[in-house]
Amino acid sequence: MKPIIGITMTTNNGQYCINEAYVKSVLQAGGIPVNIPFGVESDAEQLLEGIDGLLLTGGVDVHPHFFDEEPHINIGDIMLERDEVELELTEAALKKTMPIFGICRGIQLLNVALGGTLYQDINSQYEHTPILHKQNARRKEASHYIEITKGSKLHESIGKEKIAVNSFHHQALKKVPDIFEITAKASDGIIEAFEIKDYPYCVGVQWHPEEMAIAGDEHAKNLFKSFIDACVANKQQNATVVS
Ligand code: MN
Fold first, then answer.
1. Residues marked as catalytic
2. Most C-beta atoms within 10 A of its C-beta, which of 58, 72, 166, 206?
């Protein structure tokens, strides 16, 4: 049985939308994608009964009030409805140790959900000189290197200590709660991945593996595969508990 993967969405001009790369990369890795709209926050726990893994997707900036800051002048678009549903889903998923994969905004949301903070705008707030994190190259193309911590789940799935990734973010993780292990950084020190130690699978990445996976990149495909494998294991474990 394939695992069902809940994928968060966004809205644009009154229409729900999702970048097809998320859906295709889940399909490619052997999952069944379903999209989760806004407004289900009070039913998050029940909704999670019907899925085996949660994919937090990229998108607009998280409202800075969720990490006790006022908006910086260079903050981007924010969407409170989306923050509310994704924060509830994340909290409920963590409670039942469901596999979670956070991409771009997804890693930032995970960090904020557990008490972390963000650079609201890297270029105006980062203490060091940043490299380019908002690439002009096409979405599937890698633009900067990351160094990956040996022994991490990320390293296990990718199998390399240095890879090149794509980059489309103007925000980044600042203060990271101890529950997370930082597992990858760019050469300027910007955090590019983390995971929760002693948890089946909760991995966040700052780049966009979904774009690279559907273009055939092996590292990105392996990363999605590791998430889907964890969702299969979660599904089997829950089936055992029920029977
Ligand atoms: Mn980057």
1. 104, 208, 210
2. 206
Domains delineated in the chain: 4-242 (3.40.50.880)
Written as six digits, the tokens of 68 are 């006790």
Residue 240's φ and ψ, nearest 5 degrees, are -65, -40
Cα gap 49→96, rounded to integer Å = 10
- Give the pLDDT of residue 243: 58
Residue 242 pLDDT more than 70? no
Q: Taking ligand 1, which is a single-atom ion, which protein residues have CB atoms under 5 Å away?
A: 133, 167
> pLDDT digit string (tens) for 85-102?
999 999 999 999 999 999
pLDDT, averaged across the chain? 97
